[in-house]
Write a structure and sequence with these properties.
Elements (H helix, E strand, L loop, with lengths): L10 H33 L8 H25 L10 E7 L4 H20 L3 E9 L5 E9 L3 H5 L4 E8 L8 E12 L14 E6 L15 E6 L4 E5 L5 H28 L16 E4 L5 E4 L5 E2 L2 H5 L4 H13 L6
Parallel strand pairs: 4-9
Antiparallel strand pairs: 1-3, 1-5, 2-3, 4-5, 6-7, 7-8, 9-10, 10-11
Helix pairs in contact: 1-2
């Protein structure tokens, strides 16, 4: 960065500064932990049994160090090559009409609050609202350090059990929505897309109830013909911007599909691996007749469903990552 020509190229400085920031988030906590450790080593010989203030200070500093170490141990779990990347998260409502659309909307709020609590930014790329309430499907870009590392734990089917606010008879309903998470792929991965392999469709962006939200064909849908993978974007200001964003998402999805194919060729899938399909949910959220959120992969559960739906996912994610680290064939 101190080189005279460093700022001559606009793309290179941005990438290097981003890399520097990522490396600092790894190195600085370790330096801080080691500094605290050294201070405690120097303090221990000075402590006397009757020096209550010094003993209290020692206990406080020891607990502080243990807290830092816990966070560092958790960070080690995020060691996969793309864990440090931002993520593209998609939510799709299942069968069930308004009920499932409302559940998809609740999940979007949950992930938005999770992102907010971690200092991440959320950008809506594509959304189709439900006809009466909620969301049929939505794709968002969540930007920040290690977003993909955290949110890859959320990939799968999520099940909600509750008394429906849309049922006049107040009956209990079960709703499903699927969540997909892929890493945001940087350009240096150099995924080549041939024009002949792409079908590009433009259309008018749709809002709630299918009504057009603009008068020009600015929304873009791109289909990769060899794989059938589709990406679309309607929330940018122009057709060109929508196309560039859709291409970025398409590259990420193609990369993810290629990685999954390689893994499948190298090993047989674990028989307990949960597929993203109705009836094999990864997590259940029960709001009636009792409150319980349970992850069926790790068996981690909590009765504080309100906290979870307000973005409190850290304990579920940590349990998943720890299980993944202990079982290399585990889905994730």
């Amino acid at each position: 960065m101190s080189a005279a020509d460093f700022w001559d190229n606009t793309d290179r400085p941005r990438k290097i500064v981003k890399e520097l920031k990522t490396l600092k988030t790894i190195v600085e906590p370790w330096d801080l932990a080691y500094k605290k450790y050294q201070e405690l080593r120097e303090l221990i010989p000075l402590v006397k049994e009757d020096d209550h203030d010094l003993l209290l200070d020692l206990e406080r500093n020891t607990n502080s160090l243990l807290s830092v170490i816990d966070k560092l141990e958790f960070q080690v779990l995020l060691g996969a090559p793309l864990d440090k990347n931002s993520a593209i998260l998609s939510i799709n409502s299942g069968a069930g009409g308004t009920e499932s659309c409302d559940w998809a909307g609740m999940l979007f709020r949950m992930y938005s609050r999770f992102a907010e609590s971690h200092g991440y930014s959320v950008k809506i790329i594509d959304v189709l609202d439900g006809e009466e309430a909620g969301i049929k499907n939505i794709t968002v870009l969540i930007e920040g350090d290690y977003v993909y590392g955290y949110l890859k734990a959320e990939r799968g089917v999520h099940r909600l059990v509750r008394i429906s606010p849309f049922d006049a008879n107040k009956r209990r309903h079960t709703s499903f929505a699927s969540v997909d998470v892929i890493p945001e792929i940087e350009e240096e991965l150099d995924i080549k897309l041939e024009d002949k392999d792409l079908r590009i469709d433009v259309y008018r962006a749709k809002g709630a109830g299918g009504q057009s939200v603009n008068t020009t064909d600015s929304a873009v849908r791109i289909t990769h013909l060899p794989t059938g993978i589709v990406a679309q974007c309607q929330n940018e200001r122009s057709q060109h911007q929508n196309k560039q964003t859709a291409l970025k998402i398409l590259k990420a999805r193609i990369y993810e599909a290629e990685q999954e194919k390689k893994e499948t060729e190298l090993k047989q899938q674990d028989s307990d691996k949960k597929k993203i399909e109705w009836g094999s949910q990864i997590r259940s959220y029960v709001l009636h007749p009792y409150n319980l959120v349970k992850d069926h992969r790790t068996d981690f559960e909590t009765g504080d469903s309100g906290k979870v739906l307000d973005g409190g996912l850290d304990e579920f994610i940590e349990a998943f990552l720890k299980l993944s680290a202990n079982n290399k064939d585990f889905a994730g």
